[in-house]
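Figure 2 data, in text form.
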Amino acid sequence: MIEVKNLKKSFEDKEVLKGIDTVFESGKTSLIIGSSGAGKTVFFKCLLGLFEPTSGEIIFEGLENNSKNADADRERREQIGTVFQYSALFDFLSVEQNVQFPLDMFTKMSTSEKKDRVHQALTRVNIEEDAFKKKPSEISGGMQKRVAIARAIVNSPKYLFCDEPNSGLDPETAIIIDNLISEITHENNITTVINSHDMNSVIEIGEKIVFLKDGLKAWEGTNEEIVFTDHEDVSEFVYSSNLMQHVRTAMQKKEKK
């Protein structure tokens, strides 16, 4: 679980986050959404520890983020897996070497132990063994995303952060990635936080949704609640442009299941 208490972040004289309170629960997929400029990327980076909040608290299972305790900060980092936008794999490393990277950084496992863990992670995300030795440029975008997820979970994290995980993917592959993230979250009781603009992801796996506007939490609820909310800002965001089509399509899929 991650608790956020009155989180604020300013850059010089510009206040981007203006006091956010929320809780991200273990074993659930939580999505941060909002229009451009709402503050969701800054919020996401504060959660990851890439930005230090101006004030407020981010508490990981009772352990405050950005604490002054170096050992505590290292322990927290070891418990975090991250799926970056566009996968961010190392081009010069093979698929299995990419996945092994966090184990080299944070563990003292033997070579054989690392190999076993890497193969388990790759198998879990449905990567065939004949792709293990390939470079990222030799596999598809969807496979690259699955490799990125394998790298994020290879260290058995308590927390999984995904930044726009469906960027650049076709709709069918995006659904596969959404379902994979959701399955892994539930299987391992991970606290998963996703920064997203994809309304299909919101409807498919949004067990909790935090909607930001102008640096504030304007609304939060579930994927079912967001479709029927009478909150003006949320409704405008959800039903603007072609988003409504995605919502209707996703809801129809859920009704058929």
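Caption note: The first helix runs from residue 40 to 48.
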